[in-house]
Design goal:
The complex is a heterotetramer, with two copies of chain A and two copies of chain B.
Chain A lengths: L1 E6 L5 H8 L6 E8 L3 E2 L2 E10 L3 H16 L2 E9 L1 E3 L4 E9 L2 H18 L2 E7 L4 E3 L4 H8 L2
Parallel strand pairs in A: 1-5
Antiparallel strand pairs in A: 2-7, 3-4, 4-6, 4-8, 5-7, 8-9
Chain B lengths: L1 E5 L1 H7 L3 E4 L3 E2 H9 L3 H7 L5 E4 L2 E3 L4 E2 L4 E5 L6
Parallel strand pairs in B: 1-7
Antiparallel strand pairs in B: 1-2, 3-6, 4-5, 4-7
Helix pairs in contact in B: 2-3
Classes of the chains: A alpha+beta, B alpha+beta.
Chain lengths: ~150, ~80, ~150, ~80
């Protein structure tokens, strides 16, 4: 059971976990990415997320299919926001349900690592001092994804 | 005709989000052709980490581009 | 910021994540353990969870302090239910917030593995056929905890 | 006096959740003393995987038990 949403609106993380719950699930692991108010030493006022409509959704679905092939999963939900996001707001949710907890932990982290390096999203930061800049891809994210 | 899309910093630097051109050949040759527009385009398409997708699937320099394709160029992704 | 609750009542997983959210957090990983309706091939009608009041709470706090020493965490919440739990209901929640996602994933799984093997809780299953039995400790849980 | 607590399957099998006795010595000797009550107790306290806590801290067979202590015996835990 795969669910992928790319949306401007915020989401209800608790409702997504509730939806994945079933008498067979046993373990649900959820990641929520929250916008930080600081990056590279600068205070960030807001962030704009751009994506590639169509390709973004299909690339996430591909990541989830791959995760389902590697681990025994019962359900997997990804919600990623686009547009303007403010510090402290939720950016992304990955929730995975499985019969056993280790599979759920592994699959959730795998999906996050791949989202960071494979799904076509781009962040632009508006700094507190009025400047704006595109966020650079991080080598540590590439290394994290390469582990799998 | 093919459709060419640009995203994020690349779109901003080129000042163009998309264009339609007559083209058939490889991705590498398409980049060479776009580079001839002016120095700014040449500089952008010389970037080693520039990514390309054909019909929303990741493509390489040697991938063929055909009539009707949607070709997208973009910087490394930074979502999540 | 450590929060430990041992309670009969169900909990709101979404509210706990919301409480851990802050402009500095970046990453929140949450585990929810759900009661399965089947164990060792038998249909389970309900489960009774017993604990050691006082020691249970202090041993969980010790686990969380240890996690905070090993990873750079901003907050950690554990809620564990006791008393009667029905299939499909939530049993346990572990939620961890950190600046970076890998620390949050690692710490959350570490806490779960230790909860399974160190915190004084005991499960008794009421089977569909009217029998009841105490759940045996699993070797796989000991191995999971020994990884850390 | 010390307080002795029993949990879960052990509590059910012994039919006792707690008792107060006069005792000072090691955990091992306390188990030996409790084992003398009857065959059921002897069998329970012969279990290798039985766990013990003194004042809510995990203890070992050689740990000393003193006046006023709370000593708990219980099977391997199965929470989470």
């Amino acid at each position: 059971m795969i669910k992928v949403l790319v949306q401007v609106e915020d989401f209800d993380a608790g409702a997504e976990v509730a939806q994945l719950r079933s008498t067979a699930s046993g373990a649900i692991v959820q990641f929520v990415g929250v916008m930080r108010d600081n990056n590279q030493g600068d205070t960030v006022a807001s962030m704009h997320l751009e994506h590639y409509p169509g390709m973004t959704e299909s690339s996430i679905e591909r990541i989830l299919v791959e995760a389902s092939e590697r681990w025994s999963l019962l359900g997997c939900t990804v919600i990623h926001r686009v547009g303007t996001v403010l510090p402290g707001e939720q950016i992304v949710l990955v929730a995975v349900s499985a019969a056993h907890r280790h599979a759920a932990f592994q699959a959730c982290e795998f999906v996050m690592d791949y989202l960071k390096t494979q799904a076509p999203f781009w962040k632009k930061e508006q700094l507190h001092n009025g400047e704006s800049r595109w966020v650079d891809a991080r080598e540590s994210d590439d290394r994290a994804a390469a582990r799998w | 005709m093919i459709k060419v899309l640009f995203f994020a910093k690349l779109r901003e630097t080129l000042g163009t989000s998309d264009l339609e051109i007559d083209y058939a050949g490889t991705v590498a040759d398409l980049k060479a052709q776009l580079s001839m527009r002016n120095d700014c385009w040449a500089e952008q398409f010389a970037q080693e980490n520039l990514l390309c997708a054909i019909n929303q699937q990741v493509a390489a320099d040697e991938s063929p581009v055909s009539e009707g394709d949607e070709v997208a160029f973009f910087p490394p992704v930074t979502g999540g």
